[in-house]
Amino acid sequence: MVAIYEPKGIAREYAELALNLYSGCLHACLYCYAPACLHRQRDTFHADVRPREGIIEALRRQTPKYAGTDKRVLLSFTSDPYQPAEDQDGLTRQALEILAEHRIPFQVLTKGGMRAVRDFDLFHQADGWFATTLIFTDEASRVEWEPNAAPLESRIEAIQEAHRRGIRTWVSVEPVIDPRQALELIERLNPWVDGWKVGRLNHHPAAKKVDWHGFARDLVKTLEVTEREWLVKESLQPYLPEAAHWGGQQSLAF
Question: How many structural domains comprise the chain?
Answer without folding.
Answer: 1
